[in-house]
Specification:
The complex is a heterodimer. By secondary structure, chain A is an alpha+beta fold. Helices cover 35% and strands 24% of the residues of chain A. Chain A has three domains: 13-55; 57-114; 119-274, Thrombin, subunit H, CATH 2.40.10.340. Chain A has helices at 14-35, 39-56, 58-71, 75-110, 279-288; strands spanning 120-128, 136-139, 152-154, 159-166, 171-175, 182-187, 193-198, 205-207, 221-224, 236-244, 253-258, 267-271. Chain A has a six-stranded antiparallel β-barrel. In chain A, strands 6-7-8-11-10-9 form a six-stranded antiparallel beta barrel. In chain A, strand 3 and strand 4 (159-166) form a beta hairpin. Chain B is mostly helical. Chain B has one domain (36-164). Chain B contains eight helices and no strands. The model of chain B has no long low-confidence stretch (mean pLDDT 85). Classes of the chains: A alpha+beta, B mainly alpha. The A-B interface holds A 14-15, 17-18, 21-22, 24-29, 31-33, 41-42, 45-46, 48-49, 52-53, 55-57, 59-60, 126-134, 136-138, 172, 179, 200-201 and B 24, 27-29, 31-35, 39, 62-64, 66-67, 70-72, 74-83, 85-86, 89-90, 93, 96-97, 128-129, 132-135, 137, 141.
Chain lengths: 289, 172
């Protein structure tokens, strides 16, 4: 049978085509949320979208540039303030160096494994997610700058989040306020250990499974505990802002606010990965204790 | 009897390059990084462009283009892959089905139908997000349906400028 001429050819019925694409997008969604077998799909689409995003950035860049040229008027004041700040932190730094040396000595005496200190890379947050459902952002450094998934991101005040996807020139960071993103923390006041999770809304974090009579107070500072080996210990994460102890419930409702400017700061620091602790050195620690 | 029919301009069939560039321009407008209330108020230009071509040039646009646009939006939004793709495919489908009916009206009379399409799109996106266990973002999520409706006449007129016949056919 001869096929129909070009004009009459329409391919499959429109509804069939719709069903095909609906099925395809549903499969993609399930794949993306549950399994993540094919990260290449996202990588490829991101590569296509990259030049367009770069182009769309131009008005913001011009705006920033104009802002900066106006801000030059305040440079003298800012310089003065920064010098004072520098002097202050210099004093603390000197003390810190002495402490570090002392710490090293103590570690040697104990014959324990030393914590290694890693470097850090400066990066800029290009934009936050336009999706109201998740708390993620894009940074301007990617695999070309030797960024790897799992690296911790912080600003001058505390932890912001963790790198979750790396593209050639940009990388995606999941903020600590993202739903179900968890960080192992410790209260500074009494050393209480727990895991803090993002609430997914209102820029808040939750301490979920602490019993009603837990010793925790308002304005307690929570820092990373270093358990799990992803986050280095001692970085500020959040302060407790709301506690509800309802005896009818098994757990207390504890809400806290991030210390860092999770969605405000443009300049951030990407810490380098902590080398995983080998089983051998873990055994050593146990023997020493 | 004939005077009952609204007078319609006969537009030139769109060049596929024009469709391509209009979609790129819409993507660019969607990609401009905004924050806060501006972000909530920004109409979805890609959806409006897809609707426009679906209604006025139904033979030049297909569901595959809507799907690809949706994927690009999902990746740049850092959202779940396939969310916008699904929503765009469904509204393009409805635009293609109803294009004869919609073309009877002028752009201002089309506004109620357009807001229905946009509302359907946002509902699909919201539904898929809720199925994924995300929190409900509040009713402000639907604000961009209204701004999209307001932007519709402008999009229609600017697209028509490109598709106009060079010479007035009545002059002949």
């Amino acid at each position: 049978m001869k096929s129909a001429p070009q004009f009459f050819r329409h391919g499959p019925n429109l509804f069939v085509r719709l069903s095909f694409f609906v099925l395809l997008s549903l499969l993609l969604m399930i794949e993306d949320t549950r399994f993540k077998y094919f990260p290449e799909i996202r990588q490829t689409v991101a590569l296509v979208a990259y030049p367009l995003q770069k182009l769309a950035q131009i008005p913001i860049t011009i705006y920033d540039w104009a802002n900066e040229s106006f801000a030059n008027f305040h440079l003298v004041e800012e310089n003065y303030w920064l010098k004072q700040q520098h002097l202050k932190s210099q004093r603390q730094l000197l003390r810190l160096q002495a402490l570090q040396a002392e710490n090293k000595q103590l570690y040697k005496l104990l014959k324990a494994v030393q914590k290694t200190e890693g470097g850090a890379i400066m990066a800029e947050m290009i934009y936050a997610s336009r999706d109201p459902f998740n708390h993620r952002a894009i940074l301007n450094k990617g695999s070309q700058n030797d960024i790897h998934p799992g690296q911790v991101v912080m600003d001058d005040m505390g932890v912001i989040g963790q790198i979750t996807q790396v593209y050639p020139w940009v990388s995606e960071i999941t903020l600590i306020t993202d739903k179900d993103h968890s960080v192992p923390v410790q209260a500074v006041r009494n050393g209480l250990r727990s895991v803090i999770s993002g609430a997914g809304k209102n820029n808040k974090l939750e301490l979920r499974y602490l019993s009603v009579n837990t010793d925790i107070k308002l304005n307690d500072l929570l820092v990373t505990s270093g358990i799990g080996g992803v986050y280095p210990s001692g970085l500020p994460v959040a302060t407790v802002t709301y506690i509800e102890r309802d005896p009818g419930k098994t757990f207390a409702t504890i809400v806290s606010t991030p210390v860092a400017g999770v969605s405000r700061n443009r300049q951030v620091l990407i810490l380098s990965l902590i080398p995983p602790i080998s089983d051998h050195s873990l055994e050593l620690i146990e023997i020493n204790q | 009897m004939l005077s009952n029919y609204p007078e319609q301009e006969i537009l030139l069939p769109a060049n596929s390059w024009l469709i391509f560039f209009s979609l790129i321009a819409a993507l660019l407008l969607n990609f401009v990084p905004l924050e806060g209330i501006l972000l909530l108020l920004r109409p979805d230009f890609v959806a409006l462009t897809l609707l426009y071509w679906g209604i006025y040039q139904p033979h030049h646009i297909g569901l595959s283009i809507a799907f690809i646009m949706g994927l690009l939006m999902d990746v740049s939004n850092i959202g779940t892959l396939g969310q916008h793709a699904l929503a765009y495919c469904v509204i393009t489908y409805f635009a293609l089905i109803f294009h004869r009916r919609l073309r009877i009206f002028n752009p201002f009379q089309q506004l109620p139908q357009i807001i229905l399409f946009l509302f359907l799109m946002q509902s699909i996106i919201l539904l898929t997000a809720l199925l994924n266990d995300f929190n409900f973002p509040g009713w402000r999520f639907f604000l961009n349906c209204f701004t999209g409706m307001l932007a519709w006449p402008f999009i229609c007129f600017s697209m028509k400028l490109f598709c106009k016949q060079k010479n007035d056919p009545n002059l002949l």
